[in-house]
C-alpha cells in the first residue's frame, strides 16, 4: 500500500495528483478487506465509502472543518486517511482502534456516539457555534439513507434549512440499505431522486465528450445539450430537500472521486445548507459483500478474504428467541413483530418470512416503534418490539408514556442487553434495568438460559394489562440450568442451609455466580443462589427468602445505579426487612471497547471478584450472626 502509507494526513491526500486517486482507492479497498478479515467489523459500509471519503478530505480541511459521520460505523476510510492505517490490525480490540470515531484517537474525530440519526443535529449545533463566533467555516455531516429514517434527522433538517447563511454540507450516502433495504417514504423519495439526471453526471458527459471529440462538432453539441438538460433538471425545485428550502446537488456517483469532488466543491461554494446526494453500493468492490442479499456484510466476523467464507456461528440467544417467537406466532394470530431496521440482527427475519403481514420494519425509528406498538395494542393486537438494549434508551418516554401509562400489552425484547464490548461505550446494553425500574407497572424478565427465555417470552405475551420486557445478552446461552425449587417466580439454583448469604444472580450472571458460590463454600461461607427470573416487580417470595439470611448480594449485567440491587434494597426497606444488601453491577461509567469478558472483568464481575467480595462482606458481618435470624423472619412475616 505505498500510496496509502505515504499519506501522513489529509494535507498529503490533497497534494496527490488526481490521476493517482483511483490507485489509492484500490489500496484502501484492499486494506479494508485484508484487515477486517482478521478482526471483524463493518466491512460493507466502509467499502461503500472509499471514494466518497477521499473526495471529502480533498475538498474539506478536517479537522478545522468538521466532518461528522452518522453512527460512525463507516469511518474506517476516514481513519486511514487521517494517519491511523497502521492501527487497523487491532481494530475493535482493547487498547486498539475503536470501530467508531474516537475523540481520544484523533482531532479529526468529532462524534463517537454510535446511535444513528444524530449527525445533522451535531452539524446544526457546530454551525450555530461557528456563526456566533464569527467563523464561516463549513460543517459536513455524512448521513446514510438508513439514518435518514430516524426522526432526529428531520428535527435537525428543520433547523438547518431555516438558516440559509450557515454553511452545512449534508452528504447523503445513499446505498439503499440499512442492514436490509431501507423502507418507507424517505427511501422512496431518495429512490426517485436517484433516477433524476444529475448536474455532475451532465458535466461528466461533457468531459467524456470533449475527450472523445475535442473539436467542435456533434459530440460537443451533445455535451452542451446534456449540461442544459442536467442543469434544468437538477436545479428545478423538486424533491423533498428542495421542498424544505435546501439546495440539492445530485444524484452523483459516490464511487467516482472526480464527480464527488466536483459536487462537494459546488456544495461548498453555496455557503449555506446543502444536500449532496451520493449514490453508493454497500460492499462495493468486494463481491462476497456486494452481492450478499441479507445485509451486504454490514457487520462481519473474521473471514477468509479469498473465499469470503467464515466459520458457522454458534446458536445464540437471538436464534433461541427467533425460534420461540415463530412458535408463538403460529399459536397467536394477534402477535405481531416490529423491528427498527434490524430485522435479521434482532432475530425477526424468521417471523417475517412466516408472517410477513404481521411484521413491521419502521426504519431506524425506535421512538415510533414503541408508540406505534401502543397503537397496535390499542387496536387489539400484542406487539413484540425487538431492539438492542442500548437503542431502547432513545424510546424511554414512548415506553413510559405511550405504553405503560396506557397499560398497553406490548412486549419489548432487548437483545444485546448487558456488556457487548467491542462496539464501545454507546453500544453496551447497560442502562435498561435502571431506566425501566422507574416505569410504573413494568414487568422485566432476565432469563438465564433457553428454557427460561422461552418461558419468559410466553409469560410476556400472556400479559394483557401493561408492558413486559425480556432481556438477554449478545452471544450464546449457557447449557440449561435447572432449578432445585421454584418459589413463585424465583428459582432456587443452589441451597446452603447455613443461610449466610443469599446470592441473587440476574440472567446471564447465573453461571458465574454459581461458580462464585462454590469458591465461597470452599472458604466456609454458605451461599444460596437464586434467580429471580422476573427482576421487576420485585417478587414477595424473594423478600421472604432474603429475610432468612445474614447478607444479600445481587449481581447483574447492568448498571448498579437503579438496578436490581437498588430496587431490591428499596423493596426490603418497604417491607421492614433490615438484612444488609450489597449490589454488584456495572459502575456508572462509559467503558472503552474491548471483549465482553474484559469489560466485565474491568467492572469486577468475575467469579473471583464475587467470591472475594462475599468473603469480605461476611467477615465484617460477624456481629450479625448474634442477631437471631428468627427475630428478622418474624419481623418480615408481620
Ligand atoms: C438508534 C440506532 N438504532 C439502530 C442502530 C443500529 N444500526 C447501526 S448502523 C445501522 C444501519 C445504518 O444504515 P445507513 O444509515 O443507511 O448507513 P449504511 O450502513 O448504509 O452506510 C443500524 C440500524 C443504531 N446504530 N442506532
Ligand atoms: C453500528 C451497528 O451496526 C451496530 O448496531 C453494531 O454493529 C451491532 O453489532 P452486533 O450486531 O454484532 O452486536
Ligand atoms: Mg444505507
UniProtKB/TrEMBL annotation:
Pathway: Metabolic intermediate biosynthesis; 1-deoxy-D-xylulose 5-phosphate biosynthesis; 1-deoxy-D-xylulose 5-phosphate from D-glyceraldehyde 3-phosphate and pyruvate: step 1/1. Mg(2+) binds at residues 145, 175. The keyword Endoplasmic reticulum does not apply. Thiamine diphosphate binds at residues 73, 114-116, 146-147, 175, 286, 366. Its EC number is 2.2.1.7. InterPro entries: Dxylulose-5-P_synthase, THDP-binding, Transketo_C/PFOR_II, Transketolase-like_Pyr-bd, Transketolase_BS, Transketolase_C. GO terms for cellular component: cytosol. PROSITE patterns: TRANSKETOLASE_2 (PS00802). It catalyses: D-glyceraldehyde 3-phosphate + pyruvate + H(+) = 1-deoxy-D-xylulose 5-phosphate + CO2. CDD domains: TPP_DXS (cd02007), TPP_PYR_DXS_TK_like (cd07033). Its cofactor is thiamine diphosphate; Mg(2+). One of its GO terms (biological process) is isopentenyl diphosphate biosynthetic process, methylerythritol 4-phosphate pathway. Binds 1 thiamine pyrophosphate per subunit. Binds 1 Mg(2+) ion per subunit. GO terms for molecular function: 1-deoxy-D-xylulose-5-phosphate synthase activity; magnesium ion binding; thiamine pyrophosphate binding. Catalyzes the acyloin condensation reaction between C atoms 2 and 3 of pyruvate and glyceraldehyde 3-phosphate to yield 1-deoxy-D-xylulose-5-phosphate (DXP). NCBIfam families: dxs, PRK05444.2-2. Belongs to the transketolase family. DXPS subfamily. Homodimer. This is 1-deoxy-D-xylulose-5-phosphate synthase.
Amino acid at each position: 500500500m505505498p500510496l496509502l502509507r505515504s499519506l501522513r494526513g489529509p494535507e498529503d491526500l490533497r497534494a496527490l495528483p488526481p490521476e493517482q486517486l483511483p490507485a489509492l482507492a484500490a489500496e484502501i479497498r484492499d486494506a479494508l478487506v485484508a484487515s477486517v478479515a482478521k478482526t471483524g467489523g463493518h466491512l460493507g459500509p466502509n467499502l461503500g465509502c472509499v471514494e466518497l471519503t477521499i473526495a471529502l478530505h480533498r475538498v474539506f480541511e478536517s479537522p478545522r472543518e468538521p466532518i461528522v459521520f452518522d453512527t460512525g460505523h463507516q469511518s474506517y476510510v476516514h481513519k486511514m486517511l487521517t494517519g491511523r492505517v497502521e492501527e487497523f490490525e487491532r481494530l475493535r480490540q482493547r487498547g486498539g482502534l475503536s470501530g467508531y470515531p474516537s475523540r481520544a484517537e484523533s482531532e479529526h474525530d468529532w462524534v463517537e456516539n454510535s446511535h444513528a440519526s444524530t449527525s445533522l443535529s451535531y452539524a446544526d449545533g457546530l454551525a450555530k457555534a461557528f456563526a456566533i463566533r464569527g467563523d464561516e467555516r463549513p460543517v459536513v455531516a455524512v448521513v446514510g439513507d438508513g439514518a435518514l429514517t430516524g426522526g432526529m434527522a428531520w428535527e435537525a433538517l428543520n433547523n438547518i434549512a431555516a438558516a440559509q447563511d450557515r454553511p452545512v454540507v449534508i452528504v447523503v450516502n445513499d446505498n439503499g440499505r440499512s442492514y436490509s433495504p431501507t423502507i418507507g417514504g424517505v427511501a422512496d423519495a431518495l429512490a426517485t431522486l436517484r433516477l433524476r439526471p444529475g448536474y455532475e453526471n451532465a458535466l461528466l458527459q461533457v468531459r467524456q465528450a470533449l475527450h472523445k471529440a475535442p473539436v467542435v462538432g456533434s459530440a460537443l453539441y451533445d455535451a452542451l445539450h446534456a449540461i442544459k438538460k442536467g442543469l434544468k433538471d437538477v436545479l428545478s425545485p423538486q424533491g423533498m430537500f428542495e421542498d424544505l428550502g435546501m439546495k440539492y446537488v445530485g444524484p452523483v456517483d459516490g464511487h467516482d472521486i472526480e464527480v464527488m469532488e466536483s459536487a462537494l466543491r459546488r456544495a461548498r461554494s453555496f455557503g449555506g445548507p446543502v444536500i449532496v446526494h451520493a449514490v453508493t453500493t454497500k460492499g462495493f468492490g468486494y463481491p462476497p459483500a456486494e452481492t450478499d442479499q441479507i445485509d451486504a456484510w454490514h457487520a462481519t466476523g473474521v473471514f477468509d478474504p479469498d473465499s469470503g467464507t467464515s466459520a458457522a456461528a454458534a446458536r445464540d440467544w437471538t436464534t433461541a428467541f427467533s425460534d420461540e417467537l415463530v412458535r408463538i406466532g403460529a399459536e397467536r394470530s394477534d402477535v405481531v413483530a416490529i423491528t427498527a431496521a434490524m430485522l435479521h440482527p434482532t432475530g425477526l427475519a424468521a417471523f417475517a418470512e412466516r408472517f410477513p403481514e404481521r411484521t413491521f420494519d419502521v426504519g431506524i425509528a425506535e421512538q415510533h416503534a414503541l408508540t406505534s406498538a401502543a397503537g397496535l395494542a390499542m387496536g387489539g393486537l400484542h406487539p413484540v418490539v425487538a431492539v438492542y438494549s442500548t437503542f431502547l434508551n432513545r424510546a424511554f418516554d414512548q415506553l413510559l408514556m405511550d405504553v405503560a401509562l396506557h397499560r398497553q400489552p406490548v412486549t419489548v425484547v432487548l437483545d444485546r442487553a448487558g456488556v457487548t464490548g467491542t462496539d464501545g461505550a454507546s453500544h453496551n446494553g447497560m442502562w435498561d434495568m435502571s431506566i425501566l425500574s422507574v416505569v410504573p407497572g413494568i414487568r422485566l424478565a432476565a432469563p438465564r438460559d433457553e428454557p427460561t427465555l422461552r418461558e419468559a417470552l410466553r409469560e410476556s405475551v400472556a400479559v394483557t394489562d401493561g408492558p413486559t420486557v425480556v432481556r438477554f445478552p449478545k452471544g450464546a446461552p449457557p447449557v440449561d440450568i435447572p432449578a432445585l425449587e421454584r418459589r413463585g417466580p424465583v428459582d432456587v439454583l443452589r441451597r446452603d442451609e447455613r443461610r449466610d448469604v443469599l446470592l441473587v444472580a440476574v440472567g446471564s450472571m447465573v453461571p458465574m455466580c454459581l461458580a462464585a458460590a462454590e469458591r465461597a463454600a470452599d472458604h466456609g461461607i454458605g451461599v444460596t443462589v437464586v434467580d429471580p427470573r422476573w427482576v421487576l416487580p420485585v417478587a414477595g417470595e424473594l423478600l421472604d427468602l432474603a429475610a432468612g439470611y445474614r447478607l444479600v448480594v445481587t449481581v447483574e449485567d447492568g448498571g448498579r445505579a437503579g438496578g436490581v440491587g437498588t430496587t431490591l434494597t428499596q423493596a426490603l426497606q418497604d417491607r421492614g426487612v433490615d438484612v444488609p444488601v450489597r449490589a454488584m453491577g456495572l459502575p456508572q461509567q462509559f467503558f472503552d471497547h474491548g471483549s465482553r469478558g474484559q469489560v466485565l472483568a474491568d467492572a469486577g464481575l468475575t467469579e473471583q471478584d464475587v467470591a472475594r467480595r462475599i468473603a469480605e462482606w461476611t467477615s465484617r458481618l460477624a456481629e450479625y450472626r448474634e442477631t437471631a435470624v428468627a427475630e428478622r423472619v418474624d419481623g418480615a412475616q408481620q
